[in-house]
Write a structure and sequence with these properties.
The complex is a heterodimer of chains A (113) and B (246). Chain A has 113 residues and is an alpha+beta fold. Chain A is 26% helix and 34% strand. Chain A has one domain: hypothetical protein PF0899 fold (2-Layer Sandwich), CATH 3.30.2320.80. The chains are: A alpha+beta (113), B alpha/beta (246). Chains A and B meet through α1, β1 and β6 of A and β1, α1, α6 and α7 of B.
């Protein structure tokens, strides 16, 4: 249950961006949540809806894009989306792979006024 | 510890990426505006983690983030490591309550500082930074950051260590890697602890190994038992080798 900690980091980023853009309020927050980022999306949403009150994000819509796990194979160079948490290349079966997406949480876009 | 970064003054001021918008402020927004941010939500933590790593590097200290479920033997492993007298180590302990773990380390003769996280289920880079201000690290080989016992939350936070080491004790079961993929994926080394209990539990080292390597094909694995001393020699060699590379 570290979703509250993540939301408080997110709210700090929103405050900072609003200030830089002289915005009075944020109306929409879009995030990208990797499937293997270690955070549970519905708990994150609940945490955001709870803690946004009386912040710059009060009333803001929260949009989550859930990002699949995408890897690049360092052997055959192909890119694949993984269905299971098995870090091997579906094309050549090699296991020297790099994760390109799906392990991180990003703030992508803010709508403000 | 921190000479000139001003970190003892205020949190989150290390990045030095100050924006100077004040000098040419825009008129207040009248219309809606959408901006593309594209930044990691834990960006501030990651910067602080890099700052911690710089401190370790300045002192030539190897930093290890030790993670596992509660009760899998993190503190006992550290006690056994101190007893070998082969490694000079210090410990930052994270627990919700009590100083018991730090007291155990100090009783063995090594420096330790306890962070009581209250209700927080993990350590983050800021807490570790605070802890570092209380731990003399000059002359140490390794600083262990003993994270809050939890197989979920600590995995999301870079605390500024060089290595993540995850313990899986035999009584917990060999299904844990598959159940907690983010944690076991983060491991550079997996320690299968309480190995002397293998005859009494349906724990397959082979299965645990296979599952862990599905998540992280490069993970190293040592079977260890802190009480009997099994695997301790391998563990000490590992620490010495990793320390020699820092």
């Amino acid at each position: 249950m570290h979703e509250f900690s993540i939301v408080s980091s997110l709210l700090e980023m929103c405050e900072k961006n609003a200030k830089q853009n002289d915005a009075k309020k944020i109306t929409k927050v879009e995030v990208k949540i990797g499937k293997l980022s270690g955070v549970e999306p519905h708990l994150l949403k609940t945490a955001f809806e709870t803690f946004k009150e009386k912040t710059i994000c009060d009333g803001a819509e929260f949009v989550m894009h859930i990002q699949d796990l995408v890897i690049r194979c360092n052997t055959c160079n192909s890119e694949s989306t993984l269905e299971k948490n098995e870090f091997c290349c579906p094309t050549c079966k090699g296991n020297d792979v790099s994760v390109i997406d799906g392990e991180e949480m990003y703030l992508m876009r803010l709508e403000m006024e | 510890m921190c000479k000139d970064c001003g970190c003892s003054i205020e949190h989150g001021q290390h990045s030095h990426d100050h924006h100077h918008h004040d000098h040419h402020a825009n008129p207040q927004l009248n219309d809606k505006k959408t901006i593309e941010v594209i930044a990691k939500i834990l960006d501030a933590n990651d910067k602080e983690a890099n700052h911690n790593r710089e401190h370790f590097e300045e002192h030539g200290v190897l930093a290890i983030n030790l993670m596992s479920s509660p009760g899998s033997g993190k503190t006992t492993l550290l006690e056994a490591t101190i007893d070998t007298k082969e490694i000079k180590l210090g410990v930052i302990e994270g627990d919700l309550e009590t100083n018991q773990d730090a007291d155990r380390i100090i009783a063995k003769g090594a420096p330790a500082h306890q962070i009581s996280t209250g209700q927080a289920c993990h350590l983050d880079a800021f807490m570790v930074h605070d802890g570092l201000h209380h731990l003399p690290i000059d002359g140490l080989d390794v600083v262990f950051i003993e994270n809050v016992g939890n197989l979920v939350c600590p995995a999301s936070y870079d605390v500024g260590a060089h290595l993540n080491i995850v313990l899986l004790s035999v009584p917990e079961g060999d299904d844990k890697p598959a159940k907690y993929p983010v944690m076991f994926r983060s491991a550079d080394l997996l320690l299968i602890t309480k190995c002397d209990l293998l005859p009494y539990f349906d724990f397959s080292v082979e299965k645990a190994t296979k599952e862990a390597r599905k998540l992280n094909p490069k993970v190293d694995i040592i079977e260890i038992d802190s009480k009997s001393g099994k695997g301790i020699d391998k563990w000490i060699s590992y620490l010495k080798m990793k320390k020699s590379l820092r």
